[in-house]
Amino acid sequence: MDTRPLPLDSTSLDALAADGLRYALVDGADPQALAPWDTASARGFHDRRPDPESVDEHARHVAHRRITGVWDASIPSPEVPVATVASWVGELSVPGGTLDSWAISNVTVASTHHRRGIARALLQGELRTASAADIPMASLTVSEATIYGRFGFGAATRIADLTIEAKRAGWSPTAPADPAGRLVFVSSQQAYESCRDLVDRAGRATPGDFAIDDYHWGRHVGVFADRDKRSATLRIVRYDDAAGVPQGVVVYRLVSDATDFTKHTVEVDYLRSATDEAHAALWRYLLELDLVAAVHYEVASPDEPVLWMLRDQRAARVVTFDHHWLRILDVKAALEARSYGASDALNLGIDDALGIAGGTYRLEAGADGRAEVRATDAAPDLVMNVATLSALYLGSHRAATFASAGHITAATPGAITRLDALLRSTQTPFLSYWY
Ligand SMILES: CC(=O)SCCNC(=O)CCNC(=O)[C@H](O)C(C)(C)COP(=O)(O)OP(=O)(O)OC[C@H]1O[C@@H](n2cnc3c(N)ncnc32)[C@H](O)[C@@H]1OP(=O)(O)O
Q: Which residues does UniProt mark as catalytic (predicted)?
């Protein structure tokens, strides 16, 4: 869906105007228009000022996004917005299917203008616009876990920051060995062209992943302007199966030790595999690189299979934290898009302070794993807010844990256990990158 022609939310327009601010859309395909917006966004994330080359490139690759800003005519550089946000619609993988999600990114408010409600106007404006356009979900990855719960977002997936001592870890004798395919070095351009298909296949098979857009894909493999000289240090290895079909790719850099040349650290920037065979082959390759002491990967699945391929599992240090935040906008459409682990029926009472998704809904899941959902006047078996339902939606977490933490109230005995059985996902939900 092309979101760019959608009108700006009138409630946010009025709220910002009352504060002397102008809320408007930017043509992301026009580098002249995009440059001040890029400047503001980079400043918000404490990044360097963008040069014309990277603005041109950005304009080429974000033309599909809805680019919004807020301007203050009274400041010395009134062309630079005091707040930014970008959004686009993409495919979110869920257990047993996919659904459209309104991705939100580049949320910044200038430090000279923060804490006066500008981000609230932007976020609420995005959610109302997405809801009015019948998009059932909104999603984002966050700089801080403290900001988005108030808007109804819940942390629906976790990621693992993984550091493995390579020599100590070893490769378990029971782990896959001697793959039928082969590993090859590829250039950034070759990876850009040949690996997108495997990345899309892997993403669709992983609940919680979000179809990567061209901008993020190009950045991962290093085909864009090399402002920070990153691509010169990238190494990219692809795994091709026995039939020659690319099934896995890893993008990594080697960081040297200050005093010992035999102790480089492999920094894995991106790793994706569409088959178990490719996954094992790529991990074994990384762990057995010469002159390497450790492998570090900060966007691993919280249930990363490589831990079960190591001879010594304690050679791995794992830190997990929240990653993909979801916000259900249409309860019926979202709940009907996924499959269920049990055949059961529950009435869910959902509170939504923004008035978008609240109500009581009857979820009836059949033996085929699919559900029908409808609004009901019946008493709810469980009551929770929309952030909790959004966090539980993919099946990453146990409803029982959320109930213990005070986020769910059960009116019917056993309802929490039954909700857990319904929402269970056979695969660990996981998003493979930040956006
Ligand atoms: C999806 C993404 O893009 S994630 C990236 C988010 N952006 C950044 O981290 C860049 C640096 N930070 C910023 O640009 C700004 O500080 C923002 C965007 C986080 C907040 O913008 P502001 O305009 O100051 O927020 P605003 O005044 O609308 O605050 C809305 C609410 O969020 C709260 N809030 C704002 N920032 C934070 C924060 N960093 N941590 C916790 N709460 C916060 C406010 O206290 C307010 O709370 P309330 O609902 O209880 O009244």
A: 148, 435
| SS3 state of residue 69 | strand
Give me the interface pTM, i.e. the ipTM: 0.98
Q: Which CATH superfamily is domain 159-322 in?
A: Gcn5-related N-acetyltransferase (GNAT) (3.40.630.30)
Domains 10-135 and 159-322 agree in fold:
yes
* Whole-angstrom distance, CA of residue 396 vs CA of residue 95: 11
- Residue 44, judged by CB atoms within 10 A of its CB (0-12, 13-18, 19+), counts as buried
Write the residue with the smallest CA distance to atom 12 of ligand 1.
108
Q: Among the options 148, 252, 270, 340, which is catalytic?
A: 148
- Taking the centre of ligand 1 as the mean of its atom positions, its distance from the CA of residue 82, in whole angstroms, is 13
Cα separation, 118 vs 12, in Å, equals 9
Q: Cβ(41) to ligand 1 under 6 A? A: no
Q: Which atom of ligand 1 is nearest to the CA of 106?
A: 3
Per-residue pLDDT of the chain (435 residues; tens, 9 = 90+): 999 999 999 999 999 999 999 999 999 999 999 999 999 999 999 999 999 998 999 999 999 999 999 999 999 999 999 999 999 999 999 999 999 999 999 999 999 999 999 999 999 999 999 999 999 999 999 999 999 999 999 999 999 999 999 999 999 999 999 999 999 999 999 999 999 999 999 999 999 999 999 999 999 999 987 766 777 899 999 999 999 999 999 999 999 999 999 999 999 999 999 999 999 999 999 999 999 999 999 999 999 999 999 999 999 999 999 999 999 999 999 999 999 999 999 999 999 999 999 999 999 999 999 999 999 999 999 999 999 999 999 999 999 999 999 999 999 999 999 999 999 999 999 999 999
Question: What is each CA distance from 197 to 141, 217, 272, 375, in whole angstroms?
Answer: 23, 11, 11, 39
- The CATH label, of 3.40.50.300, 3.50.50.60, 3.30.1050.10, 3.40.50.360, for the domain at 330-423 is 3.30.1050.10
The single-letter DSSP state of residue 115 is S
State the distance from the centre of ligand 1 to the C-alpha of 227, rounded, in angstroms. Answer: 28
Domain boundaries, the chain: 10-135, 159-322, 330-423
Quick check: helix, strand or coil at residue 116? coil
